[in-house]
Specification:
With 191 residues, the chain is an alpha/beta fold. The protein has helices at residues 47-60, 64-67, 86-91, 93-100, 156-167, 186-190; strands spanning 10-15, 43-44, 78-83, 107-111, 125-128, 134-138, 147-149. The protein starts with 9 loop residues before the first strand and ends with a helix.
Length: 191
């Protein structure tokens, strides 16, 4: 995701247990894990961190539903939340509201768990990663249709190197604030 989307288009939020923090340490460097002002990092490992993240979500993402005019929104930045802790997920009240939302608020959730019971009822797709015998299926699929695939091995050193390189890329966001006018009169073009 971070290789294909700049940090002004995509924000990633991470909710992990404290004992798993080292597994995700590479994420601390990337600008995708910070808010636009670079004051708050979207890396929650305690209940207090989750409450702060929930407050941010209520202000930024949930406020989008009041501004929404259709079920298919086009919001920037798009938020992706990666959740590895079921206990901390349940403490994030804003996430529960987002999961119940019918319209697209520009928000996606990836949850990691050991069994299907770890996921909320709103889960649509499940990926069972088990090396050569990995599978993708819809949670509500009654026909048993599944897609089998061979999962690639991830190398943490590669993640570290890529995150440091991406962290050193600075976008010139001030130049992007210029917007072309919708219309120019003849005299404005003549001058």
């Amino acid at each position: 995701l971070v290789a294909l989307h700049s940090y002004d288009e995509l924000k990633i939020m991470l909710v992990v247990d404290e004992h798993e923090e080292d597994k995700w340490s590479f994420a601390k460097y990337m600008p995708h894990f910070w808010d636009a002002d670079k004051e708050n990092r979207f890396f929650a490992k305690t209940v207090d961190d989750v409450r702060e993240l929930s407050t941010f979500l209520e202000k930024d993402v949930l406020s989008r539903r009041e501004r929404s005019t259709s079920k298919q929104g086009n919001y920037f930045p798009h938020y992706v939340m990666i959740v590895t802790s079921t206990a901390l997920r349940k403490k994030c009240t804003a996430l529960e509201q987002i999961l119940e939302e019918d319209s697209d608020l520009g928000f996606s959730v990836l949850m990691l768990g050991n069994s299907i019971s770890d996921f909320p009822k709103e889960t649509e797709m499940v990926i069972g990663a088990n090396g050569d015998d990995s599978v993708i299926f819809r949670k509500d699929e009654t026909t048993g249709k599944q897609i089998h695939f061979k999962a690639d091995r991830a190398n943490k050193d590669v993640f570290e190197n890529v995150s440091v390189q991406i962290a050193n890329i600075e976008l010139d966001l001030e130049d992007q604030k210029f917007v072309l006018p919708n219309m120019l009169t003849f005299l404005e073009m003549f001058n």
